Protein backbone atom coordinates (compact mmCIF):
# COMPACT_ATOMS: atom_id res chain seq x y z
CA UNK A 1 0.00 0.00 0.00
CA UNK A 2 3.04 2.26 -0.32
CA UNK A 3 1.61 4.03 -3.35
CA UNK A 4 -1.73 5.02 -1.85
CA UNK A 5 -3.29 7.08 0.91
CA UNK A 6 -6.10 5.58 2.99
CA UNK A 7 -8.95 8.03 3.58
CA UNK A 8 -11.28 7.49 6.55
CA UNK A 9 -14.24 9.83 7.19
CA UNK A 10 -15.17 9.56 10.87
CA UNK A 11 -18.19 10.69 12.85
CA UNK A 12 -18.27 9.75 16.54
CA UNK A 13 -15.91 6.77 16.20
CA UNK A 14 -15.02 4.30 18.93
CA UNK A 15 -11.55 3.59 20.30
CA UNK A 16 -11.24 0.78 17.76
CA UNK A 17 -10.36 3.40 15.14
CA UNK A 18 -6.98 3.85 16.84
CA UNK A 19 -6.11 0.18 16.45
CA UNK A 20 -7.48 0.15 12.90
CA UNK A 21 -5.17 2.98 11.82
CA UNK A 22 -2.15 1.37 13.50
CA UNK A 23 -2.83 -1.95 11.79
CA UNK A 24 -3.17 -0.27 8.38
CA UNK A 25 0.16 1.46 8.86
CA UNK A 26 1.73 -1.80 10.00
CA UNK A 27 0.55 -3.39 6.74
CA UNK A 28 2.41 -0.75 4.75
CA UNK A 29 -0.03 2.11 4.22
CA UNK A 30 2.01 5.14 3.18
CA UNK A 31 -0.38 7.75 4.53
CA UNK A 32 -3.71 7.75 6.34
CA UNK A 33 -6.00 10.77 6.24
CA UNK A 34 -8.76 10.78 8.86
CA UNK A 35 -11.49 13.41 8.65
CA UNK A 36 -13.21 14.27 11.94
CA UNK A 37 -16.60 15.25 10.56
CA UNK A 38 -17.96 17.18 13.55
CA UNK A 39 -17.71 14.41 16.14
CA UNK A 40 -18.76 14.92 19.77
CA UNK A 41 -16.36 16.99 21.83
CA UNK A 42 -15.82 14.17 24.32
CA UNK A 43 -14.28 12.09 21.51
CA UNK A 44 -11.63 14.68 20.67
CA UNK A 45 -9.01 12.58 22.47
CA UNK A 46 -9.30 9.90 19.77
CA UNK A 47 -8.39 12.34 17.01
CA UNK A 48 -5.70 13.97 19.16
CA UNK A 49 -4.03 10.60 19.60
CA UNK A 50 -4.43 9.75 15.91
CA UNK A 51 -2.65 12.98 15.04
CA UNK A 52 0.39 11.88 17.05
CA UNK A 53 0.80 8.71 15.00
CA UNK A 54 3.45 9.00 12.32
CA UNK A 55 1.87 8.60 8.91
CA UNK A 56 -1.60 9.70 10.06
CA UNK A 57 -3.07 13.16 9.42
CA UNK A 58 -6.33 14.37 10.98
CA UNK A 59 -8.46 16.99 9.24
CA UNK A 60 -11.33 18.52 11.19
CA UNK A 61 -14.80 19.84 10.41
CA UNK A 62 -16.02 21.83 13.40
CA UNK A 63 -19.60 20.79 12.57
CA UNK A 64 -20.94 17.74 10.79
CA UNK A 65 -20.95 18.38 7.04
CA UNK A 66 -21.67 14.88 5.75
CA UNK A 67 -19.66 12.01 4.34
CA UNK A 68 -19.48 13.51 0.87
CA UNK A 69 -17.93 16.73 2.13
CA UNK A 70 -15.54 14.78 4.37
CA UNK A 71 -14.32 12.81 1.34
CA UNK A 72 -13.90 16.00 -0.66
CA UNK A 73 -11.89 17.59 2.16
CA UNK A 74 -9.57 14.56 2.19
CA UNK A 75 -9.31 14.40 -1.63
CA UNK A 76 -8.34 18.08 -1.78
CA UNK A 77 -5.70 17.61 0.93
CA UNK A 78 -4.33 14.55 -0.85
CA UNK A 79 -3.98 16.36 -4.19
CA UNK A 80 -2.23 19.28 -2.52
CA UNK A 81 0.14 17.36 -0.24
CA UNK A 82 0.71 13.89 -1.70
CA UNK A 83 1.44 14.38 -5.38
CA UNK A 84 3.97 11.54 -5.22
CA UNK A 85 1.28 8.94 -4.51
CA UNK A 86 -0.81 7.21 -7.18
CA UNK A 87 -4.27 7.27 -5.66
CA UNK A 88 -6.49 6.82 -2.63
CA UNK A 89 -8.47 4.08 -0.94
CA UNK A 90 -11.58 5.13 0.96
CA UNK A 91 -12.65 3.11 4.00
CA UNK A 92 -15.26 3.50 6.73
CA UNK A 93 -14.44 4.12 10.38
CA UNK A 94 -17.01 1.72 11.83
CA UNK A 95 -15.08 -1.53 11.32
CA UNK A 96 -17.01 -2.75 8.27
CA UNK A 97 -13.87 -2.78 6.13
CA UNK A 98 -11.23 -5.13 7.42
CA UNK A 99 -7.53 -4.38 7.12
CA UNK A 100 -7.20 -7.46 4.92
CA UNK A 101 -9.84 -6.13 2.51
CA UNK A 102 -8.21 -2.70 2.32
CA UNK A 103 -5.03 -4.52 1.31
CA UNK A 104 -6.98 -6.45 -1.33
CA UNK A 105 -8.29 -3.21 -2.84
CA UNK A 106 -4.78 -1.73 -2.82
CA UNK A 107 -3.41 -4.79 -4.64
CA UNK A 108 -6.25 -4.67 -7.19
CA UNK A 109 -5.63 -0.97 -7.77
CA UNK A 110 -1.91 -1.60 -8.22
CA UNK A 111 -2.55 -4.34 -10.78
CA UNK A 112 -5.28 -2.52 -12.71
CA UNK A 113 -4.83 -0.44 -15.85
CA UNK A 114 -6.95 2.37 -14.45
CA UNK A 115 -10.52 2.58 -13.31
CA UNK A 116 -12.23 2.44 -9.94
CA UNK A 117 -11.99 -0.57 -7.65
CA UNK A 118 -15.12 -1.43 -5.64
CA UNK A 119 -15.10 -3.71 -2.61
CA UNK A 120 -18.28 -5.77 -3.00
CA UNK A 121 -20.19 -7.34 -0.12
CA UNK A 122 -22.40 -10.43 -0.31
CA UNK A 123 -25.91 -9.34 0.61
CA UNK A 124 -27.23 -12.89 0.63
CA UNK A 125 -25.54 -13.60 3.95
CA UNK A 126 -27.74 -14.00 7.02
CA UNK A 127 -26.01 -11.26 9.01
CA UNK A 128 -27.07 -8.50 6.60
CA UNK A 129 -29.69 -6.16 8.17
CA UNK A 130 -32.94 -6.05 6.21
CA UNK A 131 -32.77 -2.30 5.59
CA UNK A 132 -29.24 -2.66 4.18
CA UNK A 133 -30.33 -5.52 1.92
CA UNK A 134 -33.38 -3.65 0.58
CA UNK A 135 -31.51 -0.37 0.15
CA UNK A 136 -28.60 -1.84 -1.76
CA UNK A 137 -30.69 -4.13 -3.94
CA UNK A 138 -32.94 -1.18 -4.85
CA UNK A 139 -30.12 1.17 -5.82
CA UNK A 140 -28.26 -1.58 -7.70
CA UNK A 141 -31.38 -2.39 -9.72
CA UNK A 142 -32.07 1.27 -10.49
CA UNK A 143 -28.46 1.85 -11.52
CA UNK A 144 -28.68 -1.09 -13.91
CA UNK A 145 -32.03 0.03 -15.37
CA UNK A 146 -31.04 3.68 -15.77
CA UNK A 147 -27.40 3.38 -16.79
CA UNK A 148 -27.22 -0.09 -18.28
CA UNK A 149 -24.48 -1.37 -15.99
CA UNK A 150 -24.75 -4.03 -13.30
CA UNK A 151 -23.01 -3.23 -10.01
CA UNK A 152 -23.37 -5.68 -7.14
CA UNK A 153 -22.76 -3.12 -4.38
CA UNK A 154 -23.54 0.51 -5.23
CA UNK A 155 -23.23 1.68 -1.63
CA UNK A 156 -19.84 0.27 -0.73
CA UNK A 157 -17.54 2.74 0.99
CA UNK A 158 -14.41 0.69 0.26
CA UNK A 159 -13.13 2.04 -3.03
CA UNK A 160 -9.81 2.44 -4.80
CA UNK A 161 -9.53 5.58 -6.93
CA UNK A 162 -6.55 6.49 -9.15
CA UNK A 163 -5.15 10.00 -8.71
CA UNK A 164 -5.87 10.97 -12.31
CA UNK A 165 -9.63 10.66 -11.66
CA UNK A 166 -9.68 12.57 -8.38
CA UNK A 167 -9.65 16.13 -9.72
CA UNK A 168 -12.93 15.65 -11.57
CA UNK A 169 -14.47 13.55 -8.81
CA UNK A 170 -13.65 16.34 -6.35
CA UNK A 171 -15.88 18.71 -8.36
CA UNK A 172 -18.95 16.46 -8.27
CA UNK A 173 -22.04 17.60 -6.38
CA UNK A 174 -23.19 16.00 -3.13
CA UNK A 175 -22.37 16.58 0.50
CA UNK A 176 -23.61 13.38 2.09
CA UNK A 177 -24.06 9.77 0.97
CA UNK A 178 -25.37 10.77 -2.44
CA UNK A 179 -21.84 11.92 -3.32
CA UNK A 180 -20.68 8.30 -3.49
CA UNK A 181 -23.50 7.55 -5.94
CA UNK A 182 -22.45 10.55 -8.01
CA UNK A 183 -19.00 8.99 -8.33
CA UNK A 184 -20.51 5.89 -9.91
CA UNK A 185 -22.74 7.89 -12.26
CA UNK A 186 -19.80 10.06 -13.32
CA UNK A 187 -17.56 7.04 -13.90
CA UNK A 188 -20.21 5.32 -16.03
CA UNK A 189 -20.81 8.42 -18.15
CA UNK A 190 -17.07 8.94 -18.65
CA UNK A 191 -16.54 5.27 -19.53
CA UNK A 192 -14.26 4.76 -16.56
CA UNK A 193 -14.20 1.04 -15.93
CA UNK A 194 -15.21 -0.60 -12.66
CA UNK A 195 -13.47 -3.58 -11.09
CA UNK A 196 -15.39 -5.39 -8.36
CA UNK A 197 -13.63 -7.55 -5.80
CA UNK A 198 -15.29 -9.59 -3.07
CA UNK A 199 -14.79 -8.42 0.51
CA UNK A 200 -16.08 -9.59 3.87
CA UNK A 201 -19.66 -8.67 4.75
CA UNK A 202 -19.28 -7.25 8.24
CA UNK A 203 -22.16 -5.84 10.28
CA UNK A 204 -22.09 -5.25 14.02
CA UNK A 205 -25.11 -4.99 16.33
CA UNK A 206 -27.47 -4.90 13.34
CA UNK A 207 -25.49 -1.95 11.94
CA UNK A 208 -26.58 0.23 14.86
CA UNK A 209 -23.53 2.50 14.58
CA UNK A 210 -24.30 3.51 11.00
CA UNK A 211 -24.94 7.22 10.44
CA UNK A 212 -26.96 6.50 7.30
CA UNK A 213 -30.49 7.90 7.69
CA UNK A 214 -32.77 5.31 6.09
CA UNK A 215 -35.32 7.89 4.92
CA UNK A 216 -33.43 11.14 4.27
CA UNK A 217 -30.27 9.64 2.82
CA UNK A 218 -32.18 7.10 0.73
CA UNK A 219 -34.22 9.91 -0.79
CA UNK A 220 -31.02 11.82 -1.58
CA UNK A 221 -29.42 8.78 -3.22
CA UNK A 222 -32.51 7.86 -5.26
CA UNK A 223 -33.04 11.48 -6.30
CA UNK A 224 -29.45 11.64 -7.51
CA UNK A 225 -29.84 8.43 -9.49
CA UNK A 226 -32.93 9.73 -11.30
CA UNK A 227 -31.66 13.29 -11.81
CA UNK A 228 -28.36 11.96 -13.14
CA UNK A 229 -30.25 9.88 -15.68
CA UNK A 230 -32.61 12.70 -16.68
CA UNK A 231 -29.74 15.15 -17.07
CA UNK A 232 -27.98 12.72 -19.35
CA UNK A 233 -31.19 12.10 -21.32
CA UNK A 234 -31.93 15.80 -21.78
CA UNK A 235 -28.36 16.39 -22.95
CA UNK A 236 -28.70 13.58 -25.48
CA UNK A 237 -32.05 14.88 -26.72
CA UNK A 238 -30.69 18.42 -27.00
CA UNK A 239 -27.65 17.24 -28.97
CA UNK A 240 -29.87 15.30 -31.35
CA UNK A 241 -32.17 18.29 -31.83
CA UNK A 242 -29.21 20.56 -32.57
CA UNK A 243 -27.95 18.04 -35.11
CA UNK A 244 -31.34 17.81 -36.81
CA UNK A 245 -31.80 21.60 -36.88
CA UNK A 246 -28.27 22.08 -38.27
CA UNK A 247 -28.96 19.51 -40.98
CA UNK A 248 -32.23 21.24 -41.94
CA UNK A 249 -30.52 24.64 -42.09
CA UNK A 250 -27.78 23.16 -44.26
CA UNK A 251 -30.39 21.74 -46.66
CA UNK A 252 -32.18 25.10 -46.81
CA UNK A 253 -28.89 26.87 -47.52
CA UNK A 254 -28.03 24.43 -50.32
CA UNK A 255 -31.52 24.79 -51.83
CA UNK A 256 -31.14 28.58 -51.69
CA UNK A 257 -27.78 28.39 -53.50
CA UNK A 258 -29.20 26.09 -56.14
CA UNK A 259 -32.09 28.48 -56.78
From TrEMBL:
Transmembrane segments: 241-258
Molecular function per GO: transferase activity
UniProt keywords, alphabetically: Membrane, Transferase, Transmembrane, Transmembrane helix
RNA-binding keyword on record: no
Classification via InterPro entries: Glyco_trans_2-like, Nucleotide-diphossugar_trans
Domain Glycosyltransferase 2-like: from-to ranges: 6-136
Top-level taxonomic group: Bacteria
Name of the protein in its database record: Glycosyltransferase involved in cell wall biosynthesis
Source species of the chain: Tepidibacillus fermentans
Amino acid sequence: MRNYAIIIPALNPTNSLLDYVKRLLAEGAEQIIVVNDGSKEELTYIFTELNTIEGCTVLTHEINKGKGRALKTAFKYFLEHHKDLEGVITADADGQHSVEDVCKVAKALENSNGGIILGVRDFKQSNVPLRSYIGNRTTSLLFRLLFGYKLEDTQTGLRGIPKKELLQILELKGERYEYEMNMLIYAKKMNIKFSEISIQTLYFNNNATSHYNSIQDSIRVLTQLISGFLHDSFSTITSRLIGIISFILLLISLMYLWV
